[in-house]
Write a structure and sequence with these properties.
The chain is about 5% helix and about 45% strand. By secondary structure, it is mostly beta strands. The protein has a 4-stranded antiparallel beta sheet with strand order 1-20-19-18, with no helix packed on it. It has a 4-stranded antiparallel beta sheet with strand order 2-3-4-5, with no helix packed on it.
Length: about 270
């Protein structure tokens, strides 16, 4: 038996031993919300029947936008009513809102964003339109990169069907692709891949990226690096048409849904 045969024998034996070793189980993901049992449900007034975006505003208050009006509605979680309305633009197809420090950003479905300074009323316009994107429907803020995140609902038909998260840096004013959501990430238990993002939010405690889809009724949770943590299939009776998603600083989750025959509503899920 020559040296080569001995080497091959050892290699084969090593492979056999390795194959017989107990496989390390993948770490199970723990969702720290009872997504099937909301801790509260708040009915919206008629002005927010078609509530399309949601953001944390300040303690016990959320900023909301209706997809037809250029008005920001400040909703108080304690009194459960709109306590302030801020007109910041003409009526249009508004699909996202995000509050960053002293500035409110509202986004149209074409990627045009308006920033409004709460303190002095000054405004700025940001153009995140892209020739490959037919429609955006989700806006959030990434504090580590100081970027606004926009998620695509639909691309042109001649482009690939992957959903893309774009980033606009508030520091450098550069706009580029940030993450891609591929089909394997959004395949449900029945094999269906229906997923058209309607909202996005960054978890303030874990840094995870939550992407919700009204079509298909799914919630995709990505790690801060963009890897899939889990996909949750939502109950269509609880989530009629989920459009907006946001967190309070302590991690409580709020998801808004448009109404059908009734007004829109916001669901609360406590973080544990």
């Amino acid at each position: 038996m020559n040296i080569l045969q001995i080497f091959i024998g050892i290699l084969v034996l090593a492979l056999i031993v390795f194959a017989c070793l107990p496989k390390k189980k993948a770490k199970e993901y723990t969702l720290r919300y009872d997504i099937g049992k909301p801790n509260g449900k708040m009915e919206m007034p008629n002005d927010l029947k078609e509530i399309s975006g949601l953001s944390f505003y300040k303690e016990n208050q959320l900023a909301c936008v209706n997809d037809e009006k250029g008005t920001v509605f400040i909703y108080d979680l304690t009194s459960q009513k709109v306590v302030e309305s801020i007109d910041i633009g003409k009526n249009g197809d508004y699909e996202g809102i995000e509050v960053v420090d002293d500035e409110i950003f509202i986004m149209k479905s074409n990627g045009k964003i308006k920033g409004f300074k709460i303190s002095d009323g000054s405004e700025r316009k940001i153009d995140c339109s892209d020739k490959d994107v037919k429609e955006y429907e989700g806006l959030s803020y990434h504090p580590q990169t100081r970027s606004l995140l926009l998620v695509t609902k639909e691309k042109d038909k001649d482009k690939n069907d992957k959903k893309t998260i774009y980033a606009y840096s508030l520091a450098t004013e550069k706009f580029d692709k940030y993450l891609t959501i591929d089909e394997d990430m959004i395949k449900s238990s029945d094999g269906k891949k229906t997923f058209a993002p309607s909202g996005i939010a960054i978890h303030p405690v874990t840094g995870e990226i939550f992407v919700i889809s009204s079509q298909g009724k799914k919630l995709l949770i990505l790690s801060s690096e963009g890897e899939k943590n889990t996909l949750i299939e939502l109950d269509p009776e609880t989530f009629v048409q989920p459009e907006g998603i946001c967190f309070t600083p302590n991690g409580d989750l709020y998801i808004s849904s448009e109404g059908t025959d009734s007004n829109g509503y916001i669901l609360k899920f406590s973080f544990f």
